[in-house]
Design a protein that fits this description.
The chain has six helices and six strands. The chain is an alpha/beta fold. The protein has one domain: Rossmann fold, CATH 3.40.50.1970. Bound molecules: 5-O-phosphono-beta-D-ribofuranose. The site of 5-O-phosphono-beta-D-ribofuranose (RP5) has 10 residues, from strand 4.
């Protein structure tokens, strides 16, 4: 599910992968954050358990496909971010999706406790984590994109300006 940003040439720089379609309502937060900053993305379902060969094919070819950052969201026994990270040198941002049984604590622990040598940058559980994954991916890309860095700075300033100091109108 590619999101064509009108004047962005080439392949989308951010891949958003998730273990199930049921993760999309959460992971859409990452896509929305990227879209708001003018960063193109591609989203697809890639399950570590149900479609292991799809995961292998995706992770092995992600760099040559032109992706720069991978955002991976999964819930429960959330092995997708770590397994993706094991097969690519691209930075992987892991989003623990809130699970029904254990409220996402299972997802968080499955993603965050990577062995030394294969990093996954793990975000918060659920919607805040997905939104921040999108923002963090944009911040990584902004290191070599001054125009994007400017849009990020404007976003931060607008966010700061929107926070009222008084507790009532
Ligand atoms: C994980 O299992 C997915 O990432 C999802 O969060 C969870 C449940 O998947 P479904 O049963 O809703 O497809 O692999």
């Amino acid at each position: 599910m590619p999101n064509p940003i009108p004047d962005s040439p080439g392949a989308p720089p951010v891949a958003i992968i998730m273990g199930s379609r049921s993760d999309w309502p959460t992971m859409k937060g990452a896509a929305d954050a990227l879209t708001s900053l003018g960063v193109a993305w591609d989203a697809r379902v890639v399950s570590a358990h149900r479609t292991p060969e799809r995961l292998f094919d995706f992770a092995r070819s992600a760099e040559t496909q032109g992706f720069k950052v991978i955002i991976a969201g999964a819930g429960g026994a959330a092995h997708l971010p770590g397994m993706a990270a094991s097969m690519t040198n691209l930075p992987v941002l892991g989003v623990p999706v809130q699970s029904k049984a254990l409220s996402g604590l299972d997802s968080l622990l499955s993603i965050v406790q990577m062995p030394g040598g294969i990093p996954v940058a793990t975000l918060a559980i659920g919607e805040a984590g997905a939104k921040n994954a999108g923002l963090l991916a944009a911040q990584i890309l902004a290191l070599s994109d001054p125009a994007l860095a400017g849009r990020l700075a404007a976003f931060r300033q607008a966010q700061t300006d929107s926070v009222a100091e008084s507790v009532e109108d």
